[in-house]
User: What shape does this take?
Amino acid sequence: MDLRRRVARSRAAAFGGLIVALLLLLAAVGPLIAPHDPIHGTLAHRLQPPSRQYPLGTDDLGRDLLSRLLYGARIAFEVGFIATAIAGVVGTTLGLISGYYAGTVDRIIMGFTDILLAFPYLLLALIIVAALGANLTNAMGAVAVVYIPQYIRLVRGTVLSVKARVYVLAARAVGASNVRMVVRHVLLNSLAPIIVQSSLSFGSAIVATATLSFLGLGAQPPTPEWGAILNAGREYIRVAPWTTTFPGLAILLTAVGCNLLGDGLRDALDPRLKTL
Assistant: This one.
């Protein structure tokens, strides 16, 4: 069955893909359709409930929440893409080297991986950001480092399985170089789990960065980042619940959309699953 048909027949994947596509669209056109300045507000309009002028209300400084969330969508997706790309490239490279060459190289890389995995992911990210300094760039880098071990273990396991198959052994028998075998035969046949892992890591990276910003270790005021917006509104949750409800929903929808899409891609790309 064609890959697109298998994905399309999965309601969860279609729903998740729709959510991600809509959020990507908002991130792309957000600055063009934002009704107000996301940085500067009017104190006379502080903590205004949702209205025609302010569809999602205002925060404690009178800034329009809708505008800040639209700008924050672009920041969230940039963070997700960059962090996932760094983790994917570094983790995939190390996983390929570890799985293909084995021996001492494998033991060194997996020892490094086990050390990183010994820390809870949020604690490790907190340690890295605390050491480097609290800002969005460092938070993004910390999240990337946290997800590198996942790619290493995933790719290493896949490579160990793929390199024992007949077509890889045949390529080695006819004298193919190690680079050609790794890139053309091993990597290309390991792409399916990497794609699935990337779709899942993307949403997790956004949530993790928002968590660091919520704790004050990520984006700093007045940056309109979802976690920072949520942190600023928590002091007013009783008198102005919209200041935390809407940024929380934005983070939730992004995580749910990415997870549903990742599950759908897993089912579509795994030839052993014939339920779709």
